[in-house]
Write a structure and sequence with these properties.
The chain is an all-alpha fold. The protein is built from twelve helices and two strands. Strands 1-2 form a two-stranded antiparallel sheet. β1 and β2 form a beta hairpin. α2 packs antiparallel against α9, α4 crosses α10 and α5 runs parallel beside α8. The termini are far apart.
């Protein structure tokens, strides 16, 4: 077997083992995830990504390792927007903190499958029609510009997506206690729980954001191995990052502008590829610098404000048009 095969086997063993420990041991009983626990798991996933990055060097070379690191940072940063949508969804559907981890656990697994499909399709298109990369560049630059110029409005929730509305109308949704399950049997009838609707909403949210993040990674490399693995590590760390940063969501007010600038930079990098290929090391430094400035500026600006836990997240936390009641 070649180096990539061994790396994939190692990735499957490590990720699979950690997932079994996560759900089967540490979260065998549903409980609210504490900030300390979330930070611990975030550190574990970042450490695993860095270890995998180091393992790439002897097998594939330092350039591939640098591409992985850049792709991982881009995917992780662009995934931050998902966190705000998760917060909105859990508030809108009234999901108790004890069950939020279970929803994100299965939501992330589904997201990995969908990302692999999208990356496979995108990679095949790029390999066959290289000019599509320039369309990706224009799309990312325009998306970033629109995000930068957009007014500060409440983000649209996947709960309002037509698919979710259709599911709520056509599926038997139970409002009885469900102990964190997605499907239950009530008086001999199989019914889905509100958690199932939230799970589908999480999957829709990932597809919405993958439209930006998947083209962005192709600005770094078109190697399917690097693209897929960097996405997997970024998505796997998303759950713990949500619980670690949920309390800071109201303070990261400039992060949106940082992400918009990153998208415009990546789009520009693609469009300039035929004239000047921006080195991967430079792309990594610029991306990290933009995000660092956005986060630091946000925290400095909001340093005297009350914690998010003391502020209302939504004006109407239980209003979910045509949606299920509290979980």
């Amino acid at each position: 077997m070649d180096g990539q095969a061994w790396l994939l086997i190692g990735l499957a063993v490590v990720v699979g083992g950690l997932l079994i420990l996560d759900l089967g041991v540490f979260h065998r009983r549903a409980h609210a995830v504490t900030t300390r626990e979330a930070l611990g798991w975030s550190a574990v996933w970042v450490a695993c990504a860095m270890a995998f990055n180091a393992a790439i060097v002897p097998w594939m070379g330092s350039e591939a390792a640098l591409q992985f690191l850049t792709g991982y940072l881009i995917e992780l940063s662009l995934s931050v927007d998902n966190l705000f949508v998760f917060l909105l969804l859990f508030t809108q559907f009234g999901v108790p903190p004890a069950y939020q981890h279970r929803v994100l656990f299965w939501g992330v697994l589904g997201a990995i499958v969908m990302r692999i499909v999208m990356i496979t399709v995108g990679g095949a298109l790029v390999a066959e029609f290289h000019w599509i990369l320039y369309l990706f560049g224009v799309f990312l630059a325009v998306t970033g510009a629109k995000m930068l110029l957009a007014r500060d409005e409440a983000p649209s929730s996947p709960a309002d997506h037509p698919v979710i509305r259709w599911l709520c109308r056509h599926l038997p949704v139970s409002d009885t206690p469900h102990d964190g399950r997605f499907v239950i049997r009530v008086e001999g009838r199989r019914m889905v729980t509100p958690l199932f609707i939230v799970l589908i909403s999480v999957e829709i949210a990932d597809v919405m954001f993958a439209v930006d993040s998947v083209p962005a990674i192709f600005a770094v490399t078109t190697d399917p191995f690097i693209v897929v693995t960097s996405n997997i590590f970024a998505i796997m760390g998303l759950r713990s990052m949500y619980f670690a940063l949920a309390g800071l969501s109201q303070r990261l007010r400039y992060l949106k502008y940082g992400l918009a600038t990153v998208l415009m930079f990546i789009g520009t990098k693609i469009l300039l590829a035929g004239v000047y290929a921006i080195p991967i090391a430079v792309a990594l430094g610029v991306t990290a610098g933009i995000l660092a400035v956005a986060v630091i500026a946000s925290l400095v600006k909001t340093s005297g404000e009350a914690p998010a836990s003391e502020q209302p997240v939504l004006a109407d936390a239980t209003a979910a048009s045509d949606g299920p009641g509290p979980a």
